[in-house]
Hints:
- This protein is an alpha/beta fold.
- It has one domain (4-339): Alpha-Beta Barrel (TIM Barrel), CATH 3.20.20.150.
- It is 43% helix and 13% strand.
- It contains eleven helices and ten strands.
- Helix 1 (36-47) packs parallel to helix 2 (72-81).
- The relative contact order is 0.11.
Amino acid sequence: xxxxxxxxxxxxxxxxxxxxxxxxxxxxxxxxxxxxxxxxxxxxxxxxxxxxxxxxxxxxxxxxxxxxxxxxxxxxxxxxxxxxxxxxxxxxxxxxxxxxxxxxxxxxxxxxxxxxxxxxxxxxxxxxxxxxxxxxxxxxxxxxxxxxxxxxxxxxxxxxxxxxxxxxxxxxxxxxxxxxxxxxxxxxxxxxxxxxxxxxxxxxxxxxxxxxxxxxxxxxxxxxxxxxxxxxxxxxxxxxxxxxxxxxxxxxxxxxxxxxxxxxxxxxxxxxxxxxxxxxxxxxxxxxxxxxxxxxxxxxxxxxxxxxxxxxxxxxxxxxxxxxxxxxxxxxxxxxxxxxxxxxxxxxxxxxxxxxxxxxxxxxxxxxxxxxxxxx
Length: 376
């Protein structure tokens, strides 16, 4: 059976959200007690044994707050020991730059943000290389999250910021190509956070950017595209199922984040207009549809679980959330495989949409049963 690639995020293992809720709900996960090597050990001992044999695990990291030149060798060794892989690495620009990062109008900030990106590439090709998956089509994703690419004032300068963004990303892509052209580079669109207004807020924005990079700077669109972030589309009220069609149609789905804002299953609250809640995967008809679409397209790269434990979870409950998220996606994938696609299409051709809903509803029920069988 072909492996299903799932990535767990280092940032999920935090002691608490803080702010209006406790920041120390999980004291064993405080930064002075738990490092990345310790997190890999938790995944190896507490999570991996609870997953089906077809699941292959990877890890996602921010440079330089979660991995850096001083820790990368030990992290790579721990991943190899746990039979895990580096699934995704991203420059943690949002931790350092509040005035646009690589699109900043401040030349010093822009230069520093560009340097952070090239150092991230160097680390991936350097001490972390031993933790890459041996198959080239499962190489790590290099994701550019646009938390820095924002502004809060309407002005003609937005055009200059966008041009800076294009030039900097083109430079980064060419630098990565000089190192081996092996990483899959993806933009993670987001409509808000950490600025009121963002460059690249939607999937279409990210797709257009890579077309422009090819036309203006000669950057090939091969291995370039989108980190599909379900929750970010939900936050702005867009259709993440149609997003999937656009991404696949442009051969631009390089990575996935399976989180949810929660509003679409009738149980967990959240959704358009809410902040980024980052629940794990939910079982619902939309996720079954997406699972079917990517299976039909032959997508088999990393599916990350960009999630945050609930503000009231202890360590064991938070670990269980990760297991539930992975199993929920696997249940949706199984249900998508079992769904009678010919019957569904025939019902829709015949305009029998009520009966088509019944068929999909049965598929959702089947997915919950698959989940129960795997979650023991």
